[in-house]
Design goal:
Structural class: alpha/beta
Strand content: 5-15%
Distance between the termini: 68 Å
Radius of gyration: 23 Å
Helix content: 25-40%
Number of helices: 14
Largest sheet: 6 strands, parallel
Order of helices and strands: EHEHEHEHHHEHEHHHHHHEEEEH
Length: about 425
């Protein structure tokens, strides 16, 4: 099963949902949606309620992409509170959008116009700051939080710190952040350099090593892709200005192989851990377990067989995507998926794909998943939570006081 990010159409959530439904009409595998919220208004709150009835249980908020997708802190708080009321999981793209916009202008003005400017203008500190801010605001509201595409030590440490304190936070690195490093954006060939442009950026080797350790130690919980692809001709729009390069890399087809190569092959995690971080954890988080994420009677028969003895090389020449580049070009993998079964039907075997367009089903994702256990289903009352917290230290809240002016206190008309 694949859960895709659906974007609103001109900030209209329902229009975005309908657009993604239309795109999925020929789906060959089961799918669901996250919905992005890119502007806050009463209509957005109403539409979120309608969407959870349609089977959406997570909403994504962008803290970056100023002037396009980015929401303010006020909007983020409103969205978090609505998610808490609905039992839906908020997700964040965590970068300080204001600082990124400034960084982009400063780097460009300094004469750096190529893809390397993308990495220079979005340092890890800006990802860490936004991750910490989102975590603290989610804690203030009392809602769980899912941080998408954790790409840096800075962000992963914020997630780990919050979890150690008992806060319900999920940290999701992506395949590209584990297997690649930022040097690709300094490639003298623009096509290869631009292919690696995504946000937050792919970081230095020390970051990818730390992310793998965090996964191995349970500080981060699962691996996704942030799959968003563009042909080299589309990326070429930003040939003279890195700010115009469409952001996104491939990973949907490569994820299982890359995670095996980077984590299981070197002995950082076990095959059982591999199943958890690539399948079971996502099924639990998005409340579709045990229908998905488990091989058992009564569960959907979605199965892959990975043969660790089969070696292969990832290349655009043999991948199944329509894009003409592959960010993992030339990467050698020890282990290959040789069999894929979708709902009991053999769809990949001996290097041959046998799918039926339109056979994929939209899977409704129920609200109030495991991350909401113990939080109640009636919705959040942040004021009540705050009063309860402070009452523990300071006595009953609100304080019962005498009339104004009693006990020596000046009345308004005396001031």
């Amino acid at each position: 099963m694949h859960i895709d990010f659906a974007l609103p159409v001109n900030h209209d959530l329902m229009a975005g949902f309908r657009a993604w439904q239309a795109k999925a009409e020929l789906a060959c595998a089961d799918y669901g949606f996250h919905m992005a919220v890119t502007k806050w208004a009463a209509q957005a709150a109403e539409d979120m309620g309608r969407l959870v009835q349609q089977g959406i249980n997570s909403f994504k908020f962008f803290m970056a992409y100023k002037g396009a997708l980015m929401v303010s802190d006020e909007e983020l708080l409103q969205g978090f509170m609505r998610c808490r009321q609905l039992g839906a999981l908020p997700q964040v793209h965590a970068e300080n959008g204001e600082a990124v916009a400034l960084g982009q202008q400063l780097v460009f003005n300094a004469g750096v116009t190529g893809p390397e400017g993308h990495a220079l203008s979005r340092p890890a500190a800006l990802e860490g700051e936004a991750t910490g801010r989102a975590i603290r605001l989610a804690g203030f509201v009392g809602v769980p939080l899912y941080v998408v595409h954790v790409m840096s030590i800075d962000a992963s440490e914020e997630v780990a710190r919050a979890r150690a304190s008992g806060q319900r936070v999920i940290g999701e690195p992506v395949a590209s952040g584990l297997a690649l490093d930022e040097s690709a954006m300094w490639d003298a060939n623009f096509t290869r350099a631009a292919a690696a442009v995504m946000s937050p950026p792919i970081r230095g080797k020390q970051h990818s090593a730390a992310l793998k350790r965090a996964l191995a130690g349970g500080l981060l919980q699962l691996v996704a892709t942030d799959h968003a692809v563009f042909n080299s001709s589309q990326k070429a729009v930003g040939q003279r200005d890195f700010r115009l390069i469409p952001n996104g890399v491939n990973g949907l087809e490569e994820r299982m192989h890359v995670v095996w190569q980077e984590l299981v092959a070197p002995g950082l995690i076990t095959p059982q851990d591999y199943v958890r971080i690539t399948s079971t954890a996502a099924a639990r988080i998005f409340n579709v377990y045990p229908r998905k994420g488990r091989i058992a009677a009564g569960s959907d028969a979605d199965v892959i067989v990975l043969d660790p003895s089969v070696n292969h090389t990832i290349t655009a020449a043999t991948h199944h995507s329509r894009i003409d580049t592959n960010v993992y070009e030339g990467k050698e993998i020890a282990g290959k998926v040789t069999v894929t079964i979708s709902r009991g039907r053999l769809v990949w075997y001996k290097g041959k794909l046998d799918v039926q367009p339109g056979s994929g089903r939209f899977i409704t994702l129920p609200t109030h998943g495991p991350l909401f256990d113990g939080l109640g289903k009636a919705g959040a009352d942040t004021a009540a939570q705050l009063m309860k917290a402070f009452s523990a230290d300071n006595g009953a809240t609100p304080v019962v006081r005498g009339a104004a002016g009693s006990n020596g206190t000046a009345r308004r008309d005396e001031l």
